Amino acid sequence: MKKGKHRHRHKIRKKVNNRRNTICHIKIALPKILDFLTSHNETSTFFTTLHNAILGGWRNKITLNFSLLEFVSPSAALVLASELDFWRNARHAKIRMISEQWNEQPKLMLGELGLFDLLRVINPPPTISLVTSERLTIKFKTGAESPGEIPNNDQAINLEDELVNVAGEFPGKEDLFSGITEAMNNVRSHAYPDRKKNAKKISHYIYNRWWMTGSFDIKTRNLTIIFYDQGVGIPNTIEKQTGRSFLAGLITKFSTIDTDAFRIRAAVEYGRTSTAQKERGKGLMDIRRVADTAGDAKLFIVSGRGLYSYLPNIEENDINKEGRLQGTLIQWEISLPMPQGD
Question: What is this structure's pTM?
C-alpha cells in the first residue's frame, strides 16, 4: 500500500539540496504478527517506525509491504487504521494498493473492519468478508468530538444504536456506553497538548481525534470494543492530574517503581478517589467500571511502554514492555449472558 502521487507533482521535479525538502522513498515491511498481546515489542516497533516516517517529511513517499504479515489482531488493525488515516488526511494523499501477495487473515480482517473504506483506497483488493450470521462488526470509525460536548446528540445516539444493532440489548450497556464516552472525554481533556503551543507538532486533523472499532460473536456472545487515540499517552499526563505525592504514595503501597505500566495503574487508582470523581475526565473510573459491572470481562490498556490488564475478581497486572506505543489503546472484552428464554 502506498501513497499515490500528489496532484501537484509537476511542481516538485527539481532536485534540491536542502535536506528538509529532499524527497525520500521509505519502505517498511510489516512483521509476521501484528498483535500487542502476543507480540508487543515487534508490533510497537513497527508502529513507531511508521509514525516517525509519517512525521519525518510531508513530501516523503512511503510504501508498506504486507506480504510477510500473517496475522493482525483487531486492536493492532485499529492502530494501523489510525496511522494510515492520519497519513492520508495530513498529506491530502490518495492511497492505492500495490500488486502483492496478501495472506488471507490480514486481508479479510482489514477488509471486514473497513480499512479500505476508511482510507478511500482507490483500488481495494477483492475480499470475501469474514462477516457471517455468527459474527457482526462495528467498522472503523473516527471523530474529534466527544458525545457529551457536541451541540446535538446525533453522534452519541448513532453509536449507542450501533452497539444495540451488533449485540442487542444487554445488561451493562449503559456502563459500556459511559466507558466509551469517558474515553472520548479523556481525549479532549488530556490526550493532546495545548494546540497553540504545539502547532508544529500536531496536525489539524489529528487534534482531539480518536478511532474505534468492535465486534460481536453471536455464538460465544463475546463483545469486543477497542478505542484508540494518538495523544501523548497516560504516562505523560497522569502526574499533572494527580500530583507527585499521589504517585509516590502508590509506589510505596504497591512496592514498585515508577514505570509507564505503573502510571496506567495509577490512573485507574486515581479514578476511584473522591477528588477524581468531582471532575469529569479525571482517572479511568468509568473505563474500569465497564469490566466490574459486566462480570465476565477483561480490560486491557496499552500506553507508552505500559500494558495494564484487569480481570474482575481474578487479577490486575501492569507490565512494562520494551516497545513503545504512541497514544492510548483501550480494549474491553465482555462475555454477554444468553438472552432470556434460550
Answer: 0.84
